[in-house]
């Protein structure tokens, strides 16, 4: 099957195109190996089946950070039949540098100039035909959010994937080309053939000082390594700069020349969107708006959720009562059916009502482009705990789910920052823990108690962050973060994002919820739950919680929301307030908020950080959970 | 003079970047090159990052980074 990769800079709209091609019902799956974030899916393009791969956004192919190196290696593996280079037309001059690098790879390529409307707003008019002629590859303009022009571009990508035309590359200045030519001679029958790369591409990569290829060259032969260094030096001497800087400047010049030839820049339309930042990124008002946005987000999710939770839970409660009248309430059948009903109820009554509005809200914030602004605003505070503003993005994603949060740490530049951010982001209450906070504390004690939990959470994370940076001291690299222009969120995109996660919940978690609830109910029938609870007695005893809650903590390791559903099951009622005191609810929720990350998160941590550090995270979070919950118990006792 | 000293709303030409290879590369691929004109749109509170506009894109730079960008105010 033909395989087409979507490649482009961050925020160029690759994922929008991907969703457009693949539709909501498409089967997305992870690629084998370590590249979970590469979405791939089958799509019908011009009546033919093809595989579309959505690579993470990259600025260039000169790999210094992990995400870029991976994307590049993936492209070079030779499994790609064509590249669809998605370009933000409003940032054409900058984006062309990546396009130039992509043509050097000699993979059939089609350029899709996305966000044409945004470019127009900025006063940029692009002559597509001229660009196509100059690059020697097909160019299409599109507005992917409205589905305009995508079909044409992708169908053309299919054509070039079949026809495999030779891709012309841009030539650099004579002195640079001369050095490239010299190195190509050395490589043609040697290393380039061995690793199956175009000699010219390899030569440029070596001159660019790409660490991966430099290592390959060193391993191949010492002479080659020496020759490379010699050529780099001679190039540097001609221009009085380093080889890397020269190549980067060359690409920039090529891109600028091209841009000036094909585009005309007129007067930009200044609109509301441009003025918005003077408020939202204001040095004082920005923080006020940030707090207001977060608070409003929280309240809306809570209101919507609790509005649905009450009637749905009542309905399920009544059905269990009715069940008890139909069949004897101490028999096997009763316990089995009750377990299943409670499992269903947990999902429909508790998880969905909070999950859906939460995901929708997060998707809107993401789509609008607010997250990088939050990163900018939070940079100062993140520095206080030894991180920088970029780390805010994994944290915010962590409110959705810890798994993408841990993966998003790949955007960070140092190993240390990655470890600290990943470790801390697992403590951010994900949507599953949010359902516990809202469904238990919010529902029974009130929204403000739930809000307090979030505040405590942030404080604890800040303290731990401070401790971690003391333990692993290092100078924080500075923030460099692109602030994309605001976009009107597309309902399609938001729905697609929500659906992707909800579907995952339905397929993966719901059966587990029902199964878990069933198992627990049967344990109760057989009176085995006592032994499980006994195993967790040290924890429940020290926190002053009922014995029956032990089992909920075990289930919570599999899926966090199971803790709440199991709680109802274990206590035998959804009217928790009759059995637990306010202090106990707070203590329990705080413990659940911090202790061992769920199985899926542990798996992704192990992959991203290694087993040792993952074990450290598990141990540390459990200790933190115990300490915080014990404190809560103490304070609750003092108040009462 | 360095970028962190530029006044809000003022423009400047980038002369160079006084930093390691990684920093230079990160800045160039975001569109900040020697010779480019930058425009300071936001200066963060509490000695936080600054926001510049360059070649049509907006970029937030931490103070430490801004301090390494040499400029010539216009």
Structure in words:
The complex is a heterodimer of chains A (640) and B (74). The longest helix of chain A is centred in the middle third of the chain and has 42 residues, at 285-326. Chain A has helices at residues 14-22, 66-76, 92-104, 116-121, 128-135, 150-163, 174-187, 191-194, 199-207, 211-220, 222-239, 243-262, 272-280, 285-326, 332-368, 370-384, 392-398, 402-408, 415-425, 431-445, 447-471, 491-526, 529-535, 537-542, 550-558, 560-571, 582-594, 599-609, 611-639, and strands at residues 2-8, 28-30, 39-45, 48-54, 82-88, 109-114, 124-126, 139-141, 263-265, 480-483. By secondary structure, chain A is α/β, with parallel strands linked by helices. In chain A, 67% of the residues lie in helices and 8% in strands. Helix content of chain B is 18%, strand content 39%. Chain B has two helices and five strands, in the order βαβββαβ. Chain B is an alpha+beta fold. The longest helix of chain B has 9 residues, at 21-29. Chain B has a five-stranded antiparallel beta sheet with strand order 4-3-2-1-5. Chains A and B meet through helix 3, helix 12, helix 16 and strand 10 of A and helix 1, strand 2, strand 4 and helix 2 of B. Strand 10 (480-483) of chain A pairs antiparallel with strand 4 of chain B, so a sheet runs across the interface.
**CATH level 1 name of chain B:** Mainly Beta
Q: Could you report the average pLDDT of chain B, rounded to the nearest whole number?
A: 87
**Radius of gyration based on Cα positions of chain B:** 11 Å
Secondary-structure element order of chain B, N to C? EHEEEHE
* Strand adjacency order, main sheet of chain A: 2-3-4-1-5-6-8
The low-pLDDT segments of chain B are: none
The helicity of chain A comes to 55-70%
How many angstroms does the end-to-end distance of chain B come to? 12 Å
The total count of helices of chain B amounts to: 2
Summarize model confidence as the mean pLDDT of chain A.
84
Describe this structure in a few short sentences.
The complex is a heterodimer of chains A (640) and B (74). Chain A contains 29 helices and ten strands.
